[in-house]
Amino acid sequence: MVNAGAMSGSGNLMDFLDEPFPDVGTYEDFHTIDWLREKSRDTDRHRKITSKSKESIWEFIKSLLDAWSGWVVMLLIGLLAGTLAGVIDLAVDWMTDLKEGVCLSAFWYSHEQCCWTSNETTFEDRDKCPLWQKWSELLVNQSEGASAYILNYLMYILWALLFAFLAVSLVRVFAPYACGSGIPEIKTILSGFIIRGYLGKWTLLIKTVTLVLVVSSGLSLGKEGPLVHVACCCGNFFSSLFSKYSKNEGKRREVLSAAAAAGVSVAFGAPIGGVLFSLEEVSYYFPLKTLWRSFFAALVAAFTLRSINPFGNSRLVLFYVEYHTPWRRKTTKLGKYPVLEVIVVTAITAIIAYPNPYTRRSTSELISELFNDCGALESSQLCDYINDPNMTRPVDDIPDRPAGVGVYTAMWQLALALIFKIVITIFTFGMKIPSGLFIPSMAVGAMAGRMVGIGVEQLAYHHHDWIVFRNWCRPGADCVTPGLYAMVGAAACLGGVTRMTVSLVVIMFELTGGLEYIVPLMAAAVTSKWVADAFGKEGIYEAHIHLNGYPFLDVKDEFTHRTLATDVMRPRRGEPPLSVLTQDSMTVEDVETLIKETDYNGFPVVVSRDSERLIGFAQRRELILAIKNARQRQEGIVSNSIMYFTEEPPELPANSPHPLKLRRVLNLSPFTVTDHTPMETVVDIFRKLGLRQCLVTRSGRLLGIITKKDVLRHMAQMANQDPESIMFN
């Protein structure tokens, strides 16, 4: 028996893996990253850069560029996300109005832009101008009458169907991952799961285009959730340009967390709310430096959006309000045919929505009208009050504002619109098109809130002597502001759907500009969460994650069962023994056969099959790459070559082929627990460290393995749910 290194006379050949080779450290699709390993790799990279920076001026400059690369990425994300959001807003305004008519002076102008650029427009008739013509006026030269109404009705439906068909076709053919809001998948990706292509360039392009189409079609969905997906696609693109992020999945997720904040910032004009949303709702790992960078990205994105000024009011907010009163007080048959499903739902939506003015207009315009206070210049039906300055009353705390005919008409139209919105949103969310739930949820809450507000307002007017109103009204001011009720209702409904709390309140006051009403918004957010939690602890995004079977371990879930690691680990009783590698006795052919016959993500490495003493863990992908590269780059490596994971090669006969050293791909410090570790502790470890798997030992001897999916299956089983639902579907 001789030493193989001495035998060959070229021991350096066996150590070629001491240098990195292509694709090492990467992960396969639909697998979970190793957070501890990614953190360790980044620490090693930073240590090398720091040591090299002292060698020369050039290396020092490179270290500075590396340190500033994070801020550069945030700047680029903010600029692109803000630009895309502004373009989307402008395009949606134009295409939404295109369903009703066209501007003769410039066809790319929306109705509002067309009329405000006209010299013949007066303030009282600001929505009517000769330059803007409805389709009936343009095609048959009629603006009134049954034939004109029917023609406009048909054109509205045809445009809606065209937009929806184009959107679902583009998604189906070019980017299937562009459907939905994207937030559940982004939460899963940020937790460490790999979904290749979900944040790719094609997804970014198709999602941006189709988002304009579906919102313009009039479907009951919003663009705010998908804008988070769009911003994360921007973050993924720019992070791929810097090796610091492209080669480290953990660092890449720091960028994506900041991008999610930028997405909410441009969606609602709420940079602070965006940071809190990323922290509270979507991020899994959120270090302090990510907080600052998220704020910077959100700030740049908001500034870029304001520079574009898509709302024409020099504000970031969608629904700016100013009150002068203190508040005080998955499996459908139609779903198998995604294109047909979208067309049918779009047709139903357009047919039912057109006759009702509150469902015909865009959801953002509807919410804006519901939030508005009734001023002297308001022409909305919701502000049709009877004002008689000569009327006298014994108590003048409450202004004399009985509801007029317009208000009562608006009430029953809002009631019908509320029912329609609730029903159609249920069927719309989840179709194979970009679809957000923020704005539809806010619209439902705002309609309900405005109706309640008007009811309380009229109750206060007709029963002003009730003690509940007598003590809360100031002379010369409105006792009840219905628009405020709409704002609180919108926050309550959105909070009930998503279970957001702190970030919701901040987003709402940034969205509306109503900072002084933060207390009723807080009360609404907390109350809606309590009520919604009574029906189920999951928000819409967590429910969507579980519906799709994503391996997401939610930090909000509690595990209180008294089970042990030995109850969950594999192999269980009656199952085949654990597949392991030995440190210096298996050939290349043995390992290749084991990889071919199993689908495990990695293998524990033990001293021998007899002792089962654990020495480390080797990833499947890295073993495959290492063997492939060794066969190409090192002479003498054949199927009979011994593979070893030790520092020194084993003693082999003189005529043995060259052994293959694979110590570089061995993780010498895999996370281990004993077989009597409580599962409550194991679950907490998986959450806080983001583990892919941990090994179970007793006195250093390997007993089994627990993977993230094993933990999720066990939690589902303990909750009397189907444990096999935990898979990527």
Automatic annotation (TrEMBL):
Location of the CBS domain: 569-635, 666-724
Gene3D superfamilies noted in UniProt: 3.10.580.20, 3.90.1280.20, Clc chloride channel
Topology of the protein relative to the lipid bilayer: Multi-pass membrane protein
Primary location class: membrane
A Pfam match: CBS
Cellular compartments annotated: Endosome membrane; Membrane
Transmembrane segments: 68-88, 153-178, 199-221, 227-243, 255-279, 291-308, 337-354, 410-430, 437-456, 484-509
This protein's name: Chloride channel protein
